[in-house]
């Protein structure tokens, strides 16, 4: 599997967290993994994998899938972050 970017919701624990780790361990990992959580107090495990796998830009985003405004903010953040990363890669 070879992908450019992936959005994983509920990424701070359970199957979502495991999915993030498996993506980062791929022989050709994605350039970006957008990983969502709901509670800032429960992001430690995600922060640790973000630090451990520098090949991928892991972007943590607060999002409850039942909150439309947070979905909209997430959409905006993904576009903005991707543009920043792309700009940097062309420097
Ligand atoms: N585990 C399995 O082997 C397995 C197998 C097949 C299917 N599934 C299905 O896959 C899903 C996840 O399973 P799991 O075992 O990973 O469950 P889990 O350990 O309870 O984790 C659920 C994740 O979803 C997040 N979440 C819950 N409600 C959310 C919402 N409204 N908006 C955004 N994120 C939300 C949780 O965030 P918080 O930490 O903030 O609560 C947590 O990160 C379930 O539907 C389960 O039935 C699981």
From TrEMBL:
Cleavable signal peptide: none
SUPFAM superfamilies listed in its UniProt record: NAD(P)-binding Rossmann-fold domains
Record-level Gene Ontology MF annotations: oxidoreductase activity
Superkingdom to which the source organism belongs: Eukaryota
Full protein name: C-factor
UniProt cross-references to Gene3D superfamilies, sorted A to Z: NAD(P)-binding Rossmann-like Domain
Database matches in PANTHER family: C-FACTOR, SHORT-CHAIN DEHYDROGENASE/REDUCTASE
Gene that produces this protein: csgA_3
GO cellular component entries: cytoplasm
Pfam families with a match to the protein in the record: adh_short
């Amino acid at each position: 599997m070879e992908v450019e970017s992936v959005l994983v919701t509920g990424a701070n624990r359970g199957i979502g967290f495991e999915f993030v780790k498996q993506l980062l361990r791929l022989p050709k990992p994605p350039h970006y993994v957008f990983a969502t959580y709901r509670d800032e107090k429960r992001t430690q495990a995600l922060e640790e994998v973000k630090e451990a796998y520098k090949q991928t830009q892991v972007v943590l985003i607060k999002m409850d899938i039942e909150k439309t405004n947070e979905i909209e903010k997430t959409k905006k953040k993904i576009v903005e972050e991707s543009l920043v990363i792309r700009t940097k890669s062309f420097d």
